[in-house]
Amino acid sequence: LGVNKTSNRGPRPNANQKPTEYAIQLREKQKVKFIYNVMEKQFRKLYEEATRKDGVTGLNLIQYLERRLENVVYRLGFAKTRRQARQVVSHGHVAVNGRRVNIASYRVKAGDVVSIIENSKNIDLIKMAVEESTVPAWLSLDKAAFAGTVLQNPSKDDLDFNLNEALIVEFYSR
What we know:
- By secondary structure, the protein is of the alpha+beta class.
- Helices cover 41% and strands 10% of the residues.
- The protein contains 7 helices and 5 strands, in the order H-H-H-H-H-E-E-E-H-E-E-H.
- The chain has helices at 21-36, 40-52, 57-66, 69-76, 82-90, 124-131, 165-172, and strands at residues 94-96, 99-100, 113-116, 139-142, 147-150.
- The chain has a 5-stranded antiparallel β-sheet, covered by helices on one side.
- A hairpin with a 2-residue loop joins strand 1 and strand 2.
- The protein is elongated, with a radius of gyration of 20 Å.
């Protein structure tokens, strides 16, 4: 049999190639979609809205994602994961400014008070999560009342993971 291997007929012939620019952008977008648990159609709508708004598109997109109710519930520490937060919201345990909201994608704004409704304050899952929580600078939390206030729009520094939002903007502006 031939000793010198020149054929490309392996299981993954391009495995040692450097990822393309497109691949890097796609991976960044998919990472963010996965972290925030957002489907493609919804993510694209958020991106288009962020493009229309004045300011930096990437930063607007981050703010929109961070200000989703499910994410705010997670950041306030009413749930241990974003997926758990989504369930807490959709099961109707959360109120915004005193009104029950069960839409995970509801966007809170500065000044909104996000709280756990009275009947749900004794749920062990929520109690345990609140005790262990640390809150980012753009939110404030009253642990005793199970309520948090949105103080301002989040900035890129408030993220709990690394993100290059410019890659996502480039991905969609192709």
